[in-house]
């Protein structure tokens, strides 16, 4: 229900949503709050400049952060494997890190 609400991009989709869910109290509240928020251009400007929206990461930024975190985890695993005596070739295959990165870790 929430996903459908936030995916609405046309009046037709909005009408279909109301047809499907309009009798649910939560939906009535969501629609009322939405209508109140967009009824005034000043309200929209205030909402768009609020910390909630200005502080959010874009999907691309989120994906980049996920990649960074994944690499940190892989490096941690690689360090553990190095300390256990695994070869760079085996570690590279297991943790999907390039040999140059592993050689740098080994020198640390």
Structure, explained:
The chain is an all-alpha fold and 108 residues long. The protein has two domains: 2-54, no CATH class; 59-107, no CATH class. It has eight helices and no strands. It has helices spanning 2-6, 11-21, 25-38, 41-48, 51-54, 59-83, 88-95, 99-107. α6 packs antiparallel against α7. The mean pLDDT is 87.
Topology:
Layout: H1 2-6, H2 11-21, H3 25-38, H4 41-48, H5 51-54, H6 59-83, H7 88-95, H8 99-107
Helix pairs in contact: 6-7
How many β strands by DSSP? 0
Could you name the ranges where pLDDT drops below 50 across 5 or more consecutive residues? none
Return the average pLDDT rounded to an integer: 87
Order of helices and strands: HHHHHHHH
Summary?
By secondary structure, the protein is mostly helical. The chain is built from eight helices and no strands.
Give the tags:
108 residues; mainly alpha; elongated
């Amino acid at each position: 229900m929430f996903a459908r609400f936030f995916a609405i991009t046309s009046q037709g989709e909005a009408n279909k949503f109301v047809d499907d869910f309009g009798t649910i109290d939560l939906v009535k509240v969501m629609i009322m709050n939405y209508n109140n928020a967009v009824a005034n251009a000043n309200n929209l400007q205030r909402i768009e400049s609020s910390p909630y929206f200005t502080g959010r990461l874009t999907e691309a930024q989120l994906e980049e952060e996920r990649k960074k975190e994944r690499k940190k985890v892989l490096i941690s695993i690689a360090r553990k494997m190095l300390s256990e005596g695994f070869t760079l070739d085996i570690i590279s295959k297991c943790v999907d890190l390039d040999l140059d990165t592993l050689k740098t870790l080994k020198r640390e």
